[in-house]
From TrEMBL:
Residues 1-20 form the signal peptide. Belongs to the protein disulfide isomerase family. PROSITE patterns: THIOREDOXIN_2 (PS51352). It holds the Pfam family Thioredoxin. This is Thioredoxin domain-containing protein. Keywords: Signal. One of its GO terms (cellular component) is endoplasmic reticulum. One of its GO terms (molecular function) is protein disulfide isomerase activity. One of its GO terms (biological process) is protein folding. It comes from Zygotorulaspora mrakii (Zygosaccharomyces mrakii). InterPro entries: PDI, Thioredoxin-like_sf, Thioredoxin_domain. It comes from the Eukaryota. Residues 13-174 form the Thioredoxin domain.
């Protein structure tokens, strides 16, 4: 126990007293206490991470902090999957590591859940002793786990207020969910669950319509769907709204279906 406490105190001294004393209020935004913790969080496979990179001396950071906290509180009862975690990184502490390439502060990133495995160095058994030693020393400076693929980072540049930030998170999450749905529909190996009607409908749409259309007919189908969406505009009626969402879903499927066909054509061109 005592050892643990000592470690904690030591950490607090390292990361500034302010961070530790305010830990009681920080029930919604975690403060990154170590580089390991930061990379563990942003490399999660199951959640988004919304990160604020701040410094104690930056004026706009001070203004952002309460809004970021307010934002995180809006998610306390959120049950949508994948969930969103909130993290603050003090760039005065991690200036030369986590925050190395940042142009200014505050920065706000939304980091998508990791889908690809981390690329870790192979453990070689026949490596000479001195080389192993060197790798060990080097890894203490630059741990191979400290990596984050840039295509998962979405930089937020909008208003630093809770509502716009929430809208941003929701739009990213909705878009990602749609992409996943479309991919599932187009994946022959994926089976829709019993109660997932849009998925089943999408699969039928591919089998009964898209598979049978020529490239020219696919183009016509696209124009048809696009004009329905355009003419619908903003309708109040809930039933119509649902129908339009379905048409949009079909259009997404069609666009991705077309893309995979195009890729095939390119492959053939090269042969
Ligand atoms: C979350 O749920 C608790 C308990 O029901 C409630 O007190 C709180 O206001 C809710 N928070 C939000 C943001 O809805």
């Amino acid at each position: 126990m005592l050892v643990l406490q000592l470690i904690l105190v030591w950490k607090c001294l390292l990361i500034q007293l302010a961070a530790c004393s305010s830990s009681k209020e920080r029930t919604h935004v975690d403060l990154a206490m170590s580089i390991d913790e930061y990379y563990d969080t942003v490399n999660s496979k199951i959640s988004y991470t919304m990160v604020e990179f701040t410094t104690p001396w930056c004026h706009h950071c001070k203004k952002l902090k309460p809004n970021f906290l307010k934002l995180s509180k809006m998610y306390e009862n959120d049950t949508t999957v994948p969930p969103v975690k909130f993290l603050e990184v003090n760039c005065e502490v991690f200036g030369t590591t986590i925050c190395r390439d940042m142009p200014g502060f505050p920065m706000i990133y939304l980091i998508q859940p990791r889908v690809k495995p981390l690329i870790l160095p192979k453990s070689e058994t026949s490596v000479p002793f001195w080389r192993k030693l060197w790798t060990k020393i080097r890894n203490r400076i630059e741990d191979p786990m400290w990596q984050l693929d840039k295509d998962r980072i979405i930089n937020y540049n909008g208003k630093r207020e809770a509502i716009p930030m929430k809208k941003f998170i929701e739009s990213v999450r909705a878009k990602d969910a749609l992409v996943e749905r479309v991919n599932n529909v187009l994946n022959d190996k994926f089976e829709c669950s019993q109660d997932d009607e849009p998925c089943q409908l999408g699969k039928r749409y591919v089998l009964e319509n898209l598979d049978k259309l020529s490239p020219k007919q696919l183009g016509q189908e696209r124009l048809k769907l696009e004009s329905i969406i355009k003419n619908a505009g903003e309708k109040e009626d809930d039933a119509i709204k649902v129908a339009i969402e379905l048409i949009k879903f079909k259009l997404q499927i069609l666009n991705h279906f077309d893309k995979s066909n195009e890729e095939q054509i390119n492959v053939y061109d090269e042969l």
